[in-house]
TrEMBL record:
Organism: Tepidiforma thermophila (strain KCTC 52669 / CGMCC 1.13589 / G233)
Classification via Pfam families: Formyl_trans_C, Formyl_trans_N
Alphabetized PANTHER family for the sequence: METHIONYL-TRNA FORMYLTRANSFERASE, METHIONYL-TRNA FORMYLTRANSFERASE, MITOCHONDRIAL
The keyword Ribonucleoprotein is assigned to this record: no
Family: Belongs to the Fmt family.
Domain (Formyl transferase C-terminal) ranges: 201-294
MF terms in GO: methionyl-tRNA formyltransferase activity
InterPro entries the record matches: Formyl_trans_C, Formyl_transf_N, Formyl_transf_N_sf, Formyl_transferase-like_C_sf, Met-tRNA-FMT_C
Name of the protein described by the UniProt record: Methionyl-tRNA formyltransferase
Keywords of the record: Protein biosynthesis, Transferase
Annotated Formyl transferase N-terminal domain residues: 1-159
Record's keyword annotation contains Protein biosynthesis: yes
Gene Ontology CC annotation, any one: cytosol
Length: 304
C-alpha cells in the first residue's frame, strides 16, 4: 500500500519512521517549509530517506496538488496537521485520509484540545484517529484510545508522556486496519460535540479570586503554551510550573505568603499555590524565587 504522511514536528517524524518500520511503502511526505534556515523534523527525515516532500501550504494550489497526486497514494496519514487542507486533497488517495486528534471526539474539537480538557478539570482524555470530512474534526471515527489526566498534569506531560507515544501506536494500528480492509467509520454523536477556540492569551489570564482548583487547572492547561499570566507593575508575568500545597491560609486571594530561593507561595481561595517557574515579559523562564527577589516581591504583596 502506497502511503503519504502529512504532518510536522517530532510527532510527524515519529509516525513517518514507524510506518516505514512497519513495512508500509511511504512514497511521499508533506511538512511545513524551512523556517530560520532549519527544516521541520518530518521534512528532514523524509529527505534523508530519499522520500519526496511537498510543502504543506503548497497543497492549497494547483502545482502542489499535482505534485501530491503524482505520488499516486493509496492512503494519506495525517500526523499533527495545523493547516486547513482542501477537501479535494484529502479525497485524492484511493483509500482516503486518516487524521490524529488529541481528544475523545466529539469532545474538544479544535486545535487546543489538550489545553481545554485540563482547563475544564477533566480527569480523562485520549486520542481519536478519524476520517476527515469538510468540517472541523467532525469526520467518522476509526479508533480511539483513552488515558488519564492526573491532578498535577500539564499540557506538556499529557502530550509527551501519553498522547504522543499512544498516538504513534494508534496511527500504526489505524493504517494497518485500512490496509487489511477492516477500518471502521463510526459516525460521531454530534449532539455531544464541544468545540473550543485556540487557547490564546485572551483565555490565559489568572483570576486570583476564583477557586483554587480552577486557578490551578488554568495554569496547568496553559503550560507550556500560551502560559497563564498575571500583571506585575503593568507587565505580564507568566506562571508555569507550580503545585497546590494542600495548605489553607487566611487573607485575600493573590497574596504572597512566603518567598525562598526557588519558589514563592500565593494564597488562593481554598488553597496555597507554590510557584516554581515563571517568565517575566520579554525574558526567559527562571526560578520563581529568583524572579521575586529581583522584582522586590515580598510576603504581603498581592497579585490582582
Amino acid at each position: 500500500m502506497r502511503v503519504v504522511v502529512m504532518g510536522q514536528a517530532a510527532f510527524g517524524e515519529a509516525v513517518f519512521r514507524r510506518l516505514r518500520d512497519d513495512g508500509f511503502d511511504v512514497v511521499g511526505a508533506s511538512a511545513p517549509g524551512p523556517s530560520g534556515g532549519r527544516h521541520d523534523p518530518l521534512w528532514a527525515a523524509a529527505e534523508a530517506a530519499g522520500v519526496p516532500v511537498v510543502e504543506t501550504r503548497a497543497l492549497k494550489d494547483s502545482a502542489g496538488q499535482e505534485a501530491w497526486a503524482a505520488l499516486k497514494p493509496d492512503l494519506c496519514v495525517m500526523a499533527f496537521v495545523t493547516e486547513i487542507i482542501p477537501h479535494e486533497v484529502l479525497e485524492l488517495p484511493r483509500l482516503g485520509s486518516i487524521q490524529y486528534h488529541p481528544s475523545l471526539l466529539p469532545l474538544h474539537r479544535g486545535s487546543s484540545a489538550i489545553n481545554w480538557a485540563i482547563i475544564f478539570g477533566r480527569t480523562e482524555t485520549g486520542l481519536t484517529i478519524f476520517w476527515p470530512d469538510r468540517g472541523i474534526d467532525t469526520g467518522p471515527i476509526l479508533l480511539q484510545r483513552r488515558c488519564p489526566i492526573g491532578p498535577d498534569d500539564t499540557v506538556g506531560s499529557v502530550y509527551f508522556e501519553r498522547l504522543f507515544p499512544m498516538g504513534v501506536e494508534a496511527m500504526s494500528e489505524a493504517a494497518r486496519l485500512v490496509r487489511e480492509g477492516r477500518a471502521p467509520r463510526i459516525e460521531q454523536d454530534h449532539a455531544k460535540a464541544t468545540y473550543e477556540p485556540p487557547c490564546r492569551d485572551e483565555h490565559a489570564q489568572i483570576r486570583w479570586y476564583e477557586p483554587a482548583d480552577r486557578v490551578y487547572a488554568l495554569i496547568r492547561g496553559c503550560n507550556p503554551q500560551p502560559g497563564a499570566w498575571t500583571t506585575v507593575e503593568g507587565g505580564r508575568l507568566r506562571i508555569f510550573d507550580c503545585r497546590l500545597t494542600g495548605e489553607e491560609a487566611p487573607g485575600m486571594p493573590g497574596r504572597v505568603l512566603r518567598v525562598d530561593e526557588g519558589t514563592f507561595d500565593v494564597r488562593l481561595n481554598g488553597g496555597v499555590l507554590r510557584v516554581m517557574r515563571v517568565q517575566p515579559e520579554g525574558e526567559k523562564k527562571i526560578p520563581a524565587g529568583e524572579w521575586a527577589a529581583q522584582a522586590g516581591i515580598a510576603p504581603g504583596y498581592r497579585f490582582r
